[in-house]
Amino acid sequence: MKYLYFTIHNFYTKKIKIQRLNDSPDFYCEMGISILETMFLFSLIDYYLILNFSGEYIDYSKWIPLMTIAALYGINHYYFKNRKEKLLEKILKKPNSTKRVINSISSLIILLTVFLFFYTGYLIRTNNGF
């Protein structure tokens, strides 16, 4: 999770920070990780139900994922509150090739999580004939 934090922080500060809004990237990193964790959790639940219970799925209301994101944000904020400076310093001391590998693997994990999220949505739609 620390490498995922580093990748999102690096992406935010290098690519998105062009707007110069003077806001902290910590909120965006913690919220991004919370959203990815929620997407992964609900994708696994839906995928398990589709495969093992012949196309059954849970019809979530909008509040369950939002509450899950809020709870995971609280956990991530508490976890990274005192660790973020040490974590970033430790990773920034590593050679550039190691940082590229960290960014590549974390980006791959992010893409696979988003793909799994959309794939389970596709499976739900095709199995239930929406």
TrEMBL record:
The chain crosses the membrane at residues 27-51, 63-80, 101-124. The keyword Transmembrane helix applies. Keywords: Membrane, Transmembrane, Transmembrane helix. This is Uncharacterized protein. It comes from Lutibacter profundi. The lineage of its organism: Bacteria, Pseudomonadati, Bacteroidota, Flavobacteriia, Flavobacteriales.
